Amino acid sequence: xxxEVTSREKVLKNIREALTTSVEPPFSDISRDADIYRKESExxxxxxxxxxxxxxxxxxxxxxxxxxxxxxVSTVMKTFGVDELFCNDNNITSILESQNIPFVSDVKCLxxxxxxxxxxxxLIARTGSVxxxxxDSQSRSVYFTSPIHFVLAYTSQIVEDVSDALKEIKARFxxxxxxxxxxxxxxxxxxxxxxxxxxxHGPKELVLFLIDDLA
Length: 215
Prior knowledge:
- This protein is of the alpha/beta class.
- The protein has six helices and twelve strands.
- It has one domain (47-211): 3-Layer(aba) Sandwich (Rossmann fold).
C-alpha cells in the first residue's frame, strides 16, 4: 500500500528543491543605493518640513531671527500657561537670559517642570521628524520627561531624509552617539483599550521654533 504524502511533506520537498536549485534574482539591475522617494524640488525644504511636522501633530512656529524667537517663545508659554521652563542647553539659555525668560537648568529639577526647551541635531523634511542625540540616560530624559516639549532649530539643520541625517551625524561625531532618536510628533498610543491616548510615553505637546538662518 502506497504511503500517502502529507501537505507538510510536500512543502518540505518543495523547499529542499528550491534550496538546491539556483535561480537568477529578478530585477538584478535595480540600484539599492538609489533614492526611492520623489524629490519635491519646487518647494523649499523648510516648507515641506513644516507641512510634514504639522501632519503628525506638531505645532510649528516660524521665526525670522533670534529676536523674533524670544518674542514667540514668550507668547507660546503664556498660551500653555507656563511661567517657567526647563532648559540646560547653554546655547539656548543665553538667548533666554537676554529676554529675561525664566528658566531652570538643574537636571534634578526636571521632573517638577511641565515644559522643556531643547535644541536638536537635524530636521527631516520628508517625514517631519526631529533628530535628537544624547550620551547618557540623564541627557535622554530631557527630551521625554515634561508633558510639553519646545524645540529650537535652524533652517540650516534641515536635511532631506533619514539617511542624510545619519550621514551628517557620522561626519560630525568621532564616535556615534549612544542615543539617536527620531521624534515624530507628540507621544501617542492606542494600546490602551484601542483608544488614542496622547502623552503616554513622552510629551503630549511638541512645539518647534524654526529660526531662519539662511535668509
